[in-house]
């Protein structure tokens, strides 16, 4: 199934930002195409990988890839959080960015075929999981139950509303949403996502869970999943670290003996536990 | 083995200087400090000088290096990116075995993994390495504890051992053989190999009388680190002594962490530069948005020792990441150079 991946390692490839969408407050989605047709043609990713993007004149940033490996427009979703991402948010359609990658291991789809998929996301933690969700829905018959449990601070902070609407139309996609505090017009759940995980009926046997969100949410959700009986080696997460090179040399992204850029960003909770560092 | 007369060293360096940029130890006239440096005049090479205060890693991995140059014209949205070509043949003369071992570690790390570091490779491609046996150790040395000296065993093109009269020359590569032939060096007598061995053995024995500053029972510390038996109190004690200056990383022959930044020139170009970095700095792991998974100093400080003593396997060093040069112990204002930390780990010193 995997195409041969030849990442862009050293010199960024120029790409044109074709469309910019306001996603939620401070988060925009940037659609892009490579300027060189042969790169546009050859660029392949695995779900869960990331790229190093260049905002010319500002610097590089590491960002996970939300689009599916197949039949999906290339895009990234980025929150304005530092110097480089602030410069990225200033860009207009037609502007250029640079791309290196894709880097990292990605989700092990070969190993998890046929299983129930439980996605638990908090806030913009849905971004790195999106690729995998789209991929799974595109191959719906190859998996068991597919469940998304998604929490955000408020209804305005829920990402990818359009995509979620499309996904819900797919048969056999179960969704649960929660927001931190009650809101007028909100009929869904209220409370933290870990509390929602505790309440709902989730499959345990033959199940893999994907967790992504802020560190506090991550730890509390893992706790609930473990109480339910999901094994540590079946809980996957994708981690974020300060990154500079993407190819395992600068070592900023070291967690224990591993480097997030080459050994990650996808880890099982079992691995994470042995690394001896905070998340 | 071959024989190089004392006064033939100039001939050797002169010949090398024609094809290579020359690097080696020199004594600074003002401070008396020994520096491993670019030698514009081959005559400044001082093979008898003490161990240089700095390792030679900067030749392959400069402090500040422009790796890419790009220009983005906002109006026309035209972008040009070029890789900076810097292939320059370099000769490193008078490398001590610890420093040569450091280069071999860097080779394995930068070139021997899933991805090859293209910039390091450029520097490495045309390198001539001449090592030099330490016939007597310096006070800071502990290479006998780290299996990286006092004499080189691999990785050199030529290796020199000073007998007092001249140099025994060991050839380590075809390139080295070619140079020896070009210089028409005499073949050393049949007793040469035995003489070199005797001198190296004597050097090893003299560590007890001369190399008194540092000792490091590394295997014991490696074992405790790898099996996770170092108590948090020990790391806190070590962490509290750290000034977070990064000096240990900068003088370490095997430390290779770097930062990458885009620096805008006045002429509309941007240089992508990489600079040395250190895991002791708070900003090292701080992400945009200020989340820092390694905020407390002890969480950061212990990583250096895990990196040197326990993670060398995943870095493909094929040996410990410490080469026993003793420089970190010399420069550390908090007295937590590697040998001391190894001692703390062994004794589980928690502050008494």
How would you explain this protein's 3D organization?
- The complex is a heterodimer of chains A (279) and B (352).
- With 279 residues, chain A is of the alpha/beta class.
- Chain A has 2 domains: 8-103, Elongation Factor Tu (Ef-tu), domain 3 (Beta Barrel); 109-238, 3-Layer(aba) Sandwich (Rossmann fold).
- Chain A is built from 8 helices and 15 strands.
- Chain A has helices at 37-42, 83-89, 109-112, 126-138, 161-169, 193-199, 215-228, 269-274; strands at residues 8-24, 27-34, 50-55, 59-64, 75-79, 96-103, 116-122, 146-152, 173-179, 189-190, 207-212, 235-238, 254-255, 258-259, 266-268.
- In chain A, the strands form 3 sheets. A 7-stranded mixed sheet of chain A has the order 10-9-8-7-11-12-15, sandwiched between helices. In chain A, strands 4-3-6-1-2-5 form a 6-stranded antiparallel sheet. A two-stranded antiparallel ribbon of chain A has the order 13-14.
- The radius of gyration of chain A is 18 Å and the shape is globular.
- Chain B is an alpha+beta fold and 352 residues long.
- Chain B has one domain (2-347).
- Chain B is 33% helix and 21% strand.
- Chain B has 13 helices and 12 strands.
- An 8-stranded mixed sheet of chain B has the order 3-2-6-7-8-9-1-10, with helices on both faces. Chain B has a 4-stranded antiparallel sheet with strand order 5-4-12-11, with no helix packed on it.
- In chain B, helix 8 crosses helix 13 and helix 9 (232-240) packs across helix 11 (297-309).
- Chain B starts with a strand and ends in a 5-residue tail after the last helix.
- Classes of the chains: A alpha/beta (279), B alpha+beta (352).
């Amino acid at each position: 199934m995997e195409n041969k991946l030849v990442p862009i390692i050293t010199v960024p490839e120029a790409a044109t930002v074709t469309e910019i969408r306001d996603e939620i407050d401070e988060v925009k989605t940037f659609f892009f195409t490579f300027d060189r047709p042969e790169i546009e043609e050859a660029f392949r990713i695995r779900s869960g990988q990331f790229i190093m993007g260049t905002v010319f004149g500002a610097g590089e940033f590491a960002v996970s890839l939300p689009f599916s490996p197949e039949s999906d427009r290339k895009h990234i979703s980025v929150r304005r959080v530092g110097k480089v991402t602030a410069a990225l948010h200033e860009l207009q359609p037609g502007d250029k960015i640079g791309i290196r990658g894709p880097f990292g291991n990605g989700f092990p789809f070969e190993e998890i075929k046929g299983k129930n998929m439980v996605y638990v996301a908090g806030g913009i933690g849905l971004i790195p999981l999106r690729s995998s969700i789209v991929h799974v829905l595109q191959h719906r018959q190859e998996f068991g139950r597919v469940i998304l449990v998604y929490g955000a601070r408020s209804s305005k902070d829920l990402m990818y509303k359009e995509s979620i609407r499309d996904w819900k139309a797919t048969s056999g996609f179960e969704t649960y949403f929660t927001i931190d505090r009650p809101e007028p017009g909100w009929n869904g759940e209220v409370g933290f996502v870990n509390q929602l995980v505790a309440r709902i009926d989730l499959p345990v046997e033959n199940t893999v869970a994907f967790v992504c969100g802020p560190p506090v949410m991550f730890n509390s959700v893992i706790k609930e999943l473990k109480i339910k009986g999901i094994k540590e080696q079946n809980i996957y997460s994708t981690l974020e670290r300060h990154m500079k090179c993407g190819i395992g040399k600068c070592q900023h992204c070291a967690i224990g003996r591993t480097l997030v850029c080459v050994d990650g960003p996808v880890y099982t909770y079992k691995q994470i536990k042995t690394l001896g560092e905070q998340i | 083995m071959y024989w190089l007369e004392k006064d033939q060293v100039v001939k050797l360096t002169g010949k090398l200087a024609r094809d290579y940029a020359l690097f080696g130890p020199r004594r600074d006239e003002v401070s008396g400090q020994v520096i491993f440096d670019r030698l514009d005049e081959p005559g400044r090479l001082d093979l008898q000088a003490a161990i240089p205060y700095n390792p030679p890693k900067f030749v392959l991995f400069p402090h500040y290096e422009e790796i890419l140059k790009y220009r983005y014209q906002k109006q026309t949205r035209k972008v040009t990116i070029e890789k900076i070509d810097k292939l320059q043949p370099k000769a490193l003369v008078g490398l001590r075995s610890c420093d040569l071992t450091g280069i071999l570690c860097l080779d394995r790390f930068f070139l021997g993994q899933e991805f090859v570091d293209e910039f390091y490779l450029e520097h490495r491609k045309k390198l001539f390495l001449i090592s030099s046996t330490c016939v007597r150790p310096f006070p800071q040395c502990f290479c006998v504890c780290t299996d990286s000296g006092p004499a080189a065993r691999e990785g050199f093109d030529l290796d020199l051992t000073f007998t007092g009269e001249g140099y025994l020359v060991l050839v380590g590569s075809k390139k080295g053989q070619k140079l020896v032939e070009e210089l028409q060096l005499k073949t050393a007598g049949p007793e040469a190999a035995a003489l070199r061995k005797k001198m190296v053995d004597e050097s090893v024995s003299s560590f007890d009388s001369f190399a008194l500053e540092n000792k490091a029972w590394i295997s014991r510390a490696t074992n405790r680190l790898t099996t996770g038996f170092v108590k948090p109190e020990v790391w806190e004690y070590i962490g509290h002594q750290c000034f977070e200056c990064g000096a240990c990383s900068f003088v370490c022959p095997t430390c290779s962490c770097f930062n990458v930044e885009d620096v805008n020139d006045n002429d509309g170009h941007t240089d992508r530069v990489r600079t040395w970095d250190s895991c002791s700095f708070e900003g090292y792991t701080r992400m945009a948005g200020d989340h820092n998974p390694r905020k407390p100093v002890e969480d950061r400080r212990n990583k250096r020792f895990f990196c040197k003593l326990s993670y060398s396997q995943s870095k493909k060093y094929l040996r410990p990441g410490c080469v026993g040069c003793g420089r970190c112990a010399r420069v550390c204002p908090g007295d937590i150079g590697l040998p001391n930390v190894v001692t703390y780990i062994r004794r589980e010193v928690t502050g008494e």
